[in-house]
Amino acid sequence: MASVETAAEHERILREIESTDTNCIGPTLRSVYDGQEHGLFMEKLDVRIRNHDREIEKMCNHHFQGFVDSITELLKVRGEAQKLKSQVTETNKRLQGDGKELMSAMEELQKCRVQQRNIASTIDKLSHCLPVLEMYSRLQEQMRTKRYYPALRTLEQLEHTCLPRAGQYRFCSIMAENIPKLRTQIRDTAMTQLRDFLESIRKHSDKIGETAIRQAQLQRSLDTQPRTLIGRRSRKEAAAAAGGGAGTDSGGAGGSPVSEQDSGILDVEDEEDGEVPGAQDLVDFSPVYRCLHIYTVLGLRDVFENYYRKQRRKQARLVLQPHSNMHETLEGYRRYFNQIVGFFVVEDHVLHTTQGLVNRAYVEELWELALSKLIAALRTHSSYCDNPDLVLDLKNLIVLFADTLQGYGFPVSQLFDMLLEMREQYGEILLKRWNVTFRQVLDQDNFSPIPVSTEEEYKHYTSQFPMEDPELDKLPFPKKLPFSEFVPKVYCQLKEFIYACLKYFEDLHLSSTEVDDMIRKSTNLLLTRTLSHCLHYAIKKKNVGLAELVQVIINTTHLEQSCHFLEEFISNITNVPPDSANATKLYGTSTFKDARHAAEAEIYTNLNAKIDQFLQLADYDWMAAVPGGGTPEASDYLIDLIAFLKSTFSVFTNLPGSPVEHATLPGKVAQTACMSACKHISTSLTQLPLDPEVRQISMGALHQLNTDVKECEGFARAGPVAGFQGDTLLLAFSDLRQLLELFTQWDWTTYLADYGKPTCKYLRVNPQTALALLEKMRETSRKNVVFAQFRKTDRDRQKLIDTIIKQLRNLIAQHHA
């Protein structure tokens, strides 16, 4: 059974060896060698080889005759082939001989074709290289002539069009390498020109602003022409200037979009028809346009815009920084304004001639910055100014500055608001100047009526001061005006002040009502503060006599009467009716009334002070004995005092002027002064015996005082000043008179019995005053009793005084209770 399986396995292996590639029989043979029947397999293999050899032999025997026949035919063919080869060789020799000339011609033709192809290729290459060379030459020429914008356009065309067509040549590579360098050179050169331009306009902004302001001033003078924007070209012209060369390339000799002149300020000497050149005529803006277009082509427009705006902001801060001594002269302010105007004229022109280099928001931001710094600088520097003429010139300069920039579209309302603030400072400076003027007028015035000798002199004064006095007009020459030189001078100065205020309000775009209101308020300040202080200064000044004070009263009265003329004057120059609803009234009437009252009070004060000087000379003997016979004479100091009062009050009755004036003004002043003097004398005489230093008083001293009071009553009864009714003036001495009569007549019974009754004879006697005098008299009586204690009458008198004193004290206590 095992042999059968082995035989089948060997048969399978042999079939596998026969049917398998020799490269893959390794595993098959390995399986044979791994088996145990190696010898048996070799035997079978030998049997199979012998079988195959027999089959091969059979097959060869079967095909041998055909192989022999094929060899025989092949030998026959070799002979024919030899013949054919010799024929072909002969034919070839003949053909080679015959085609030698043809081959020579063909070679020549081939060479010509190659040359022709090379020439065509060369022409084609040259057709691409020559434009490159020509364009590069043009580029070099444009760079040499500083026409950088067309050079940049040429560079763009060379890089993107010509060089790619030319091919890979060494000179093309060199050109391609140089293109970034040339582009950088153009960019740097354009930036350098821009810096030069910025530096140039910074230096010449003063001239640009001066020209723009002069043009605005000229425009204001052309009343018949409509107001137009100052110094600005039309939009079409500006657009043409900005974009004239942007869309077309220069052909051979092309230029920038605007002129290719160097940056800086152009000299414009010839002004045709008197026209003032605008900023565009003074400034060459081509560096800006050129640099803008170059950076736009380079794709760096944002970089250029940021750089330009940054540099202009720095320049703005420099321009807005005023000089430390700008406030000293008007020229300093003018130069400052010219620089600012020049700066914004340039920015406005750039805004309207370029597309987006600067925009409206940027310019407005710069203007807001400029306004804040400008107003702060003006407030600071103008505060140092104390010259109204300089402030007025500064105001006019600011108005012209504002009108100029308003013509370019900048809002300037804040400047006019600041001018209204400066009006208060201007008013204060005017008040200081007029304070000096009024004081000079007062110091130079002689406080005497103005003598007038001729009709011309009279008209001269009446033209300076509005005076309506028919009585004075009828008087013959020479005559005297009731007031002094102070009145017409002050009235003229008031009008000059109003004119000075009006000058400031010109061109401030205020309504007539506003101007009228501000002028009236300023005039009120002049009247209530400056003139009032000056009048009080003159009144309170030392060594001012009563006559001068009386003249001050007359002067202020006439100035008070002229206030309505002053109001009419203001209404005429402002064209606002004085009776309008919101019209401010002048306070001149109250000012002059207050000054007149102050002068009157000063008269009373000076008169009382003079009376005190006389009373200081009083030298009473308070221990004097009762005169034996006759009436004692009045004291010398009192006689001198009454003589002084008589001469003083004669001044009031001899004043120049109409009788009406005497009846109204000096008469009242004289009456009040006379009554005040009498009351002061009465009070002072009453206080003499009540002085704490006077410890004892005799009846003789009271009799002497009584005599002096009678002298005063005689003065009052004589009527030193007209206008008193009856014995009105005597009432000033009634208190002292009743007191002295009580003591000299020793009528204590009546006083004590009727005290408090309306019909009391001694109604004006104060019990405390009577008590003080009695106590001083008691001290005198006690001293006399010591030396005359055996005299019964003196002892009785002492007891009587003690009794009266006790009763007076009880009376005073009851009164207080």
Protein model, in words:
It is a single chain. With 817 residues, this protein is mainly α. 74% of the residues lie in helices and 1% in strands. It contains 27 helices and four strands. The protein has a two-stranded antiparallel sheet with strand order 1-2. Strands 3-4 form a two-stranded antiparallel sheet. Helix 13 runs antiparallel to helix 16 and helix 22 runs antiparallel to helix 23. The longest helix is centred in the first third of the chain and has 107 residues, at 38-144. 30% of the residues are buried. The model is unreliable at 223-263, 267-274, 654-665 and 785-790 (pLDDT under 50).
Question: Taking strands numbered 1, 2, ... along the chain, how are they ordered across the largest sheet?
Answer: 1-2
What is the CA-atom radius of gyration, in angstroms?
66 Å
Number of strands: 4
Distance between the termini: 178 Å
The helix-and-strand class reads mainly alpha
Provide tags for this entry:
817 residues; elongated; two-stranded antiparallel sheet; EXOC6/Sec15_C_dom1; mainly alpha; single chain
Nutshell version of this structure?
This protein is mainly α. The protein has helices at 2-19, 26-34, 38-144, 148-166, 170-221, 235-243, 279-282, 286-297, 301-319, 330-353, 360-382, 388-407, 413-444, 455-464, 470-474, 486-505, 512-540, 546-561, 563-574, 588-615, 636-653, 659-690, 699-717, 734-744, 748-754, 767-787, 792-816, and strands spanning 264-265, 283-284, 450-452, 479-481.
